[in-house]
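Batch manifest, entry 17 of 40.
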Amino acid sequence: MSPRQNAFVVATECVFCDAVKGSMSVREVFRDDIAIGFLDRSPVFKGHVLVAPLRHAVTLGNLDVDLVGPFFERVQRVSARMPAALECDGTFVAINNVVSQSVAHLHVHVVPRRRKDGLRGFFWPRVRYASDAEADDYARRLREALAD
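Output type: structure tokens
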């Protein structure tokens, strides 16, 4: 079994595992003993967060059953606090398992939504931050909202 298929081994070539280890730079919005949350580098809308378990799992089906509840508590927290932090109307929460999964490490998309924002169905247009400073500001606002 390759490291990418084993839910209990850190993948040898996984950019999200690199983010967990700190060897790849990401704009973190939270990190604890279960998961990491960081801004998507190619967001659907500004403030789009990826929540990934610290322990490598390729898909939801590979995540240790004891981690499913705690992991989704983190996803719930990001989704609940994002509207106040980003002044959005709500969130869109999604997981791709294999198909359309650009990184073979389980991650949940938490996307800020606004009424009439143009998002329809499963076509996800992508935007860019105007600058590193703008991306840093989104990450800061989310970090502050997620701080306990």
